[in-house]
Amino acid sequence: QVQLVESGGGLVQPGGSLRLSCAASGRIFSIYAVAWYRQAPGKQRELVAAITSGGVSDYADSVKGRFTISKDNTENTVTLQMNSLKAEDTAVYYCNAHRYYSDYRDRVFRASWGQGTQVTVSS
Predict the structure, then answer these.
(1) CB 59 within 8 A of CB 69
(2) Secondary structure of 5-65 in the HEC alphabet?
(3) Per-residue pLDDT tens listing for the chain (123 residues)
(4) How many Å apart are CA 45 and CA 87, to the nearest integer?
(5) Who's near 24: CB < 8 A, 6+ residues apart?
(6) How far apart, in whole angstroms, are the C-alpha atoms of residue 56 and residue 58?
(7) Residue among 16, 6, 8, 7 nearest 121 (CA)
């Protein structure tokens, strides 16, 4: 089973930046896609960004142009660089893994949901 740990969240002012990290317990990113999701209080969990094993990325319309997802297969980490943050970006951010495209398409998660990392955008 895939094990992932999120980190990097915090409090930032609107317009600021944060960098989140998703670390895997093993060298899995050559075969697994990794996606960032977020959930705000009272809202459903939503996709933020994803990156395939081949390095192809996908973004939610709400963050496109502001967020960038990348990965380092050697260090087994996936990074979400968040710039121009807005109050509506406030949420708990989680990462998870998808083994196949069908997993991603159908939202089949290959890792257990962890505690996530809190991102708060406020002045």
Answers:
(1) yes
(2) EEECCEEECCCCCEEEEEEECCCCCCCCEEEEEEECCCCCCEEEEEECCCCCEEECCCCEC
(3) 788 999 999 999 999 999 999 999 888 888 899 999 999 999 999 999 999 999 999 999 999 999 999 999 889 999 999 999 999 999 999 999 999 888 889 999 999 999 999 999 999
(4) 17
(5) 2, 3, 4, 32, 34, 76, 77, 78, 97
(6) 7
(7) 16
